[in-house]
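Session log. Operator J.P. requested a structure for one protein chain; no other inputs attached. Running the standard single-chain path with token output.
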Amino acid sequence: MVGTTRFELVTPSMSTKCSTAELSAHETLATSCPKNDWDGQSRAGEGVYNQSREGAQELLAIEFSLYGDFRKPRAEAPMSKHAFSVSMPENLTSPVVFASPHSGSDYDSTFLQASILDGQQIRSSEDAFVDQLFADVPRFGAPLLAAVKPCAFLDLNRATEELDPALIEDVPRRSQNPRVASGLGVIPRVVANGRAIYRGKLPRQEAQRRISQFWHPYHDALQGLLTQAQDKFGQAVLIDCHSMPHEAIATMPARHTNLPEVVLGDRFGSSAAAVVMDRIEAAFVRAGLRVVRNAPFAGAYITQTYGRPSRGQHAVQVEIDRSLYMDEARVRPNSDFFAFKELLGQVAAEIALMDQEEMPLAAE
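Structure written below.
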């Protein structure tokens, strides 16, 4: 055991067979993203900042100092212009790209003052600390891309066309998909449990500004990293990292006597080759984690857009039970945080070892 926590590093001999389940996948339109060139280093400039290299404990200290008691906005916080952070390995040795689109935690004062929620309530839709859980992946030869702005401000796992007419002015009311209808469009109207974020509507211009300033740079960077991997290795694998509220799995059907701790989504086989999905699942299972596939999360915009197995580009969404590493009510790491981070490092290291010889050739 690691300390007094429930997590321990495991060997392949400790692996057990996991179960699978299915639920309807999200539907959305896919779009292409232009290619970016990356030079193997963290880059600074418009839309990007250098991710801190401090240890995890210091990163958490920075996190807490920024938000204080979480109920009060930072009065002097400026509007950040950074769209994402990217940490590159010293040597790119893996075709795998890790990304965390919902872990952004830059709740600037302008956004908080426009919301009717306090600083803790508004974080309920955030994949808090997921980028820190996967912060070691550059050590394994793979890059890590992470959002800066929070999911409540802009959802990077939605298409730019998913504008909510109940929130955004001058958006025509027409047939909307279930996500938009429930307030979870690209500019969310609600956070967890359907709590409204704003008092009224937002100008269409504000929605377009967020999309232009933050959505497009993130997705340009993501496709750039995948293209770089594919150019070098012949294949690219996206691990789209997320967290899920414990209640999302606690209400699963009674047949799940042992609730899953990780849900892998490949849109029922359409966003990743079977051998890729099997390899990723095996890495989590060998670490002693209970895994299911595609239920209750099969993947949304990102997996559908970037999962192109026939072209040698695979995408798998990873959802991790938040209760494994954090106090969900207080949005704080729990006593298992660092042990679980170490365990995920083992998983990420195994996934990063995947090479093109294990994957099917892309269609000509």
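Operator note: The radius of gyration is 19 Å.
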